[in-house]
Amino acid sequence: xxxxxxxxxxxxxxxGVLALLLWxxxxxxxxxxxxxxxxxTAIVEQLVLVLPLVWSAALATGMNVLVGxxxxxxxxxxxxxxxxxxxxxxxxxxxxxxxxxxxxxxALAPALNTMFGTTSTTPRRLVVSVVVFAPVFVNMLxxxxxxxxxxxxxxxxxxxxxRQITRTVTIPGALPYLFTGLRIASSxxxxxxxxxxxxxxxxxxxxxxxxxxxxxxxxxRAWAFVLGAILLGLVFYLATLALERxxxxxxxx
Amino acid sequence: MSAVEAxxxxxxxxxxxxxxxxxxxxxLTVAAGEFxxxxxxxGCGKSTLLRLIADLDAPTTGELTVFGKTPxxxxxxxxxxxxxxxxxxxxxxxxxxxxxxxxxxHGVGKAERAGRARELLSLVGLDDFAGHFPHQLSGGMQQRVxxxxxxxxxxxxLLMDEPFGALDEMTRERMQTELVxxxxxxxxxxxxxxxxxxxxxxxxxxxxVMSPRPGRISAVVPVNLGDVRGEGLREDASFxxxxxxxxxxxxxxxxxxxxVDLR
Lengths: 253, 263
What we know:
The structure holds two protein chains of two kinds. Chain A contains nine helices and no strands. Chain A is mostly helical. The longest helix of chain A has 46 residues, at 40-85. Chain B is an alpha/beta fold. Chain B has eight helices and nine strands. In chain B, the strands form two sheets. A six-stranded mixed β-sheet of chain B has the order 5-6-7-3-8-9, with helices on both faces. In chain B, helix 3 crosses helix 4 (110-123) and helix 7 crosses helix 8. Chain B is globular. The chains are: A mainly alpha, B alpha/beta. Chains A and B meet through helix 6 and helix 7 of A and helix 3 of B. Chain A: One of its GO terms (molecular function) is ATP binding.
């Protein structure tokens, strides 16, 4: 490991450990009641106890995130390609994207629960798709519009077909923008999937576990599930980041 | 048959604030294999004329043919290769893949593409950079890749819009020498847009001088410095004489000679 890599990893870890120590000292020293703030050791104790449950809950929520992310992104990319080609489609789709981006999932989740029934994962996955659509659509569309005039002239000089232009210039040029959109979307997708579970329905995900633990006054356990939620968010963020890096390297970035 | 034939070609750009006459009454013939430079101040329509020949824009008036066809037919038949002021390489493609782009678009097979790209890269002296990406190259090297790309389909006409405009003087002179050699080897006609008088004189057989508002051809200066043009030519008296002739044509009046102090 090089010196810069050590600095990059060691500094945040030291800061994190220091914060945990302060937290522990504060809770024990000031005698804070567990229902106000459990100590890190109590949370870890609970985490060890309910680890299989955290794992299965994270898998359930993670599946919702994954399906919603893929469906939302595919629809958004398709819509962006159409909007970039036709002005009319753009005037129809862009306001729709804006409307979707301000739609409160808190309002959407209960409505969809009623629509699809409480034993279905569909409402949660739909909520995630809706949340994912706007950032992916907006960024992809901007990317598709970034074609440099010199590239447009060049491809016209080569008498390239519209399909060839899309394949050789437009799509590769838009990819970095798509990944920016996906990176934003992946974090909000995890949040949306968890929040969507707060409104009843299946009790198998992280969000449901957090609410039920909290309502049973098992605060340390609730925090253990929160920890699971943080890790799930990190996994999705790092996965999109890795995908972005791989494509960038293949494109010579 | 001449490579380019323009008769009374004009171009008017319409905008909300009114019409702009970019070109008016252009008569120009470029013979097959001839190197013609278009020179003039900014806004004289030299790039516009090149874009009309390339069928990237359409003339408003007059008649324009490229190898006896309409510019559109010539473009679709890939009769010309083109290079712009910006190299315009695709940043996500390697140097080789950039050179192969036109061949790939026109369905040339993989093995043949690779062979042709190797040939072209050695022609522009970039054999060692075949697998590099554009951002790993200097501006001059990128421009050489763009020139290699413009030659990929062995065009009988090369259209070049200030391809060395963004380069430093030293790189520029080296590129000019290379271009003279490449053109002699390929036998292509060239229409070369520039705003550098020495560049126009060094490269071409005829310099077409243009004036702005509206863009017109104000003079045509034959240069004829011979087929073999090496670095020595840049310090030759005939070179300076031709530079002076073009300069006078550009300014419209003879430049009064001054005492030259040689030390």
